[in-house]
Amino acid sequence: MTSEPMLAVSGLSKSFKAVKAVRDVTFSIPRGKTFGLVGESGSGKSTTARLVLRLVEPTDGTIRFRGRDLAGLSPGDLRRERRHMQMIFQDPFGSLNPRMSIRDTLTEPQLVHGIGSPAEHLRTAERLLAEISMPRTALDRYPHEFSGGQRQRIAIARALSTNPELIVADEPVSALDVSVQAQVLNLLRDLQDKHGTTMLFISHDLRVVQFMCDEIAVMYLGEIVEQGPREHIYGAPAHPYTQALLASAPGKGAGKRARLKGEIPSAHAVPSGCAFRTRCPSAFERCAIEKPLMRDIGNGQKAACHLLDEAKAA
Amino acid sequence: MLRYLGKRFLLILPTIFVPLILVFLLLRLSPGDPAGMMLGDQATAEQIAALRSQLGLDQPIWIQFLLWLKGIVTLDLGNSIFFREPVMQIIPRYAGVTILLTLVALTLAVIIGITLGLVTAMNRNKPIDRGVVTTAVLGISLPEFWFALLLIFIFAVTLRWFPVAGYNPPSAGIVAFGATIFLPALALGVRQSALMTRMMRSSMLDVLNEPYITTARAQGLPESTVIGRYAMRTAAMPVVTVAGLSAGYMLGGAVAIEIIFALPGLGRMLVEAVGRRDYPLVEGGVLTISLVLAVLNLAIDVIYAILDPRIRYQ
């Protein structure tokens, strides 16, 4: 049981009519680890998060959470299982019910999942407020009285209120000012250490992902193009897209590598062969004909690119 | 909360007085003379002049207005020119019917509107949604008197479930009262319910797209709680606004319904009083309607504050 990953996603796909938002995504997260999904907007990161949470029905593929196939659960069982998988969304202004006091916001998940007595609900709410460094008086206030960073901390406290095993954080800091981002990320990491929570962390910000994640998958047009431990992805990116992403990030190394041109193609018309070839600086004939497969390049790092073959053959 | 109510209460005063001033001026500036009407064709100019000075109609208009204002403050609205009876005694005989009719019609409209709005929003683009929305458009377009005649034909003439016309006060027993009030209330309320259905549907659809609804679902809240506690409370706000407007419309516009169903109501009394140039009675009637409307609007403000705690704090 302990060796089994907390979350194992296999062959996950989702189409909205003609749009293939997520294609054949496979990854797993060991207990207590943080797995990062990075990519541009439109790369299918958020859809993957929603699929994992079963807020959207997958077209294909399986999601095993705590060793159980989520697709096999009845609606009632799924609802009960949600106690163990909570989420933090991007928009701290929209994700809290404006008509509920912080007290209700923090106690309702416990109430719904039948965790403890009302007195315990309140104690948990008070403890969570202390953990996010907010005064007890916040209990009787409403979301609009707080700033974006404060609200996101409340959203984190709410996610922790059922003591979940997995937290899905979809761009949890991208709506916040940079000065507040660090504060929220530190808090998230401290709380994760303290509670031993597993996390699926989604962001378009490479620095944020580097700070937060043990393992990282890079998504492009609904697919994972490269995946591996953080130090390898950042130290020795294998896929041209990952290289370009790192080059476009501000800070060290910027400008050394080729930058990306153009926009991500529409998911209505995914290019043939390798989806990235239209923007790839090193694309050649084979890329248009044949879809590159994910191949192991050692140290737990995997990437899908024909260049890796060529390099090996040479 | 108290400050909020106090402020609302102050805003009532113009709601009451502006229509009164307008009616007062309009009546006196429009052609037609109550003294002439009362005395008939054969009256001499002297007789008319004598009656005019007896009724105070020969005074300058601003004196008449001040006298009348004094009357309001001392709860003496003068005598009806036609009935030769104090207005304060005539009005209650008619006002009760209209107020009850409005309240029953409003209740029916809100119940129908919220229910259908919910059903259509949750079955968006399914046959039931399309059917109800089309019917609602029809309902908004049809005049009330036509609908009233249709109801009489079906339920009173053909099925004989209800009397064709007439009125039993509540003191005659709830069943007798209900039998005479139901069809008029339905005829009066159906258009408003069509408006409310559309309002509820669109605001429900908006709310269901809010991130906090997604969050609530992802947290594992039962769908009944998500809809009932989270979505409906927010979505009901515009319906409450419409209910306030509807109440005003029904209080003043129930004339046709009152005439068709032979209800001794305020609307009918007002139309007759205007025809007779019975100034005190018309003014008394308008004062009553304004007062009831003001009280209803105050009630609606309280409902707002209950539905949205943020209002109480502003």
TrEMBL record, chain A:
<dbReference type="InterPro" id="IPR003439">
    <property type="entry name" value="ABC_transporter-like_ATP-bd"/>
</dbReference>
<keyword id="KW-0813">Transport</keyword>
<dbReference type="InterPro" id="IPR003593">
    <property type="entry name" value="AAA+_ATPase"/>
</dbReference>
<dbReference type="InterPro" id="IPR017871">
    <property type="entry name" value="ABC_transporter-like_CS"/>
</dbReference>
<keyword id="KW-0547">Nucleotide-binding</keyword>
<keyword id="KW-0067">ATP-binding</keyword>
<feature type="domain" description="ABC transporter">
    <location>
        <begin position="7"/>
        <end position="246"/>
    </location>
</feature>
<dbReference type="InterPro" id="IPR013563">
    <property type="entry name" value="Oligopep_ABC_C"/>
</dbReference>
<dbReference type="Pfam" id="PF08352">
    <property type="entry name" value="oligo_HPY"/>
</dbReference>
<dbReference type="InterPro" id="IPR050319">
    <property type="entry name" value="ABC_transp_ATP-bind"/>
</dbReference>
<comment type="similarity">
    <text>Belongs to the ABC transporter superfamily.</text>
</comment>
<dbReference type="InterPro" id="IPR027417">
    <property type="entry name" value="P-loop_NTPase"/>
</dbReference>
<dbReference type="Pfam" id="PF00005">
    <property type="entry name" value="ABC_tran"/>
</dbReference>
<dbReference type="GO" id="GO:0005524">
    <property type="term" value="F:ATP binding"/>
</dbReference>
<protein>
    <submittedName>
        <fullName>ABC transporter ATP-binding protein</fullName>
    </submittedName>
</protein>
Automatic annotation (TrEMBL), chain B:
<feature type="domain" description="ABC transmembrane type-1">
    <location>
        <begin position="95"/>
        <end position="304"/>
    </location>
</feature>
<feature type="transmembrane region" description="Helical">
    <location>
        <begin position="171"/>
        <end position="190"/>
    </location>
</feature>
<protein>
    <submittedName>
        <fullName>ABC transporter permease</fullName>
    </submittedName>
</protein>
<keyword id="KW-0813">Transport</keyword>
<dbReference type="InterPro" id="IPR035906">
    <property type="entry name" value="MetI-like_sf"/>
</dbReference>
<keyword id="KW-0472">Membrane</keyword>
<dbReference type="Pfam" id="PF00528">
    <property type="entry name" value="BPD_transp_1"/>
</dbReference>
<keyword id="KW-1003">Cell membrane</keyword>
<feature type="transmembrane region" description="Helical">
    <location>
        <begin position="94"/>
        <end position="119"/>
    </location>
</feature>
<dbReference type="Pfam" id="PF19300">
    <property type="entry name" value="BPD_transp_1_N"/>
</dbReference>
<dbReference type="InterPro" id="IPR000515">
    <property type="entry name" value="MetI-like"/>
</dbReference>
<feature type="transmembrane region" description="Helical">
    <location>
        <begin position="239"/>
        <end position="266"/>
    </location>
</feature>
<dbReference type="InterPro" id="IPR045621">
    <property type="entry name" value="BPD_transp_1_N"/>
</dbReference>
<comment type="similarity">
    <text>Belongs to the binding-protein-dependent transport system permease family.</text>
</comment>
<feature type="transmembrane region" description="Helical">
    <location>
        <begin position="9"/>
        <end position="29"/>
    </location>
</feature>
<feature type="transmembrane region" description="Helical">
    <location>
        <begin position="286"/>
        <end position="307"/>
    </location>
</feature>
<keyword id="KW-1133">Transmembrane helix</keyword>
<keyword id="KW-0812">Transmembrane</keyword>
<feature type="transmembrane region" description="Helical">
    <location>
        <begin position="131"/>
        <end position="159"/>
    </location>
</feature>
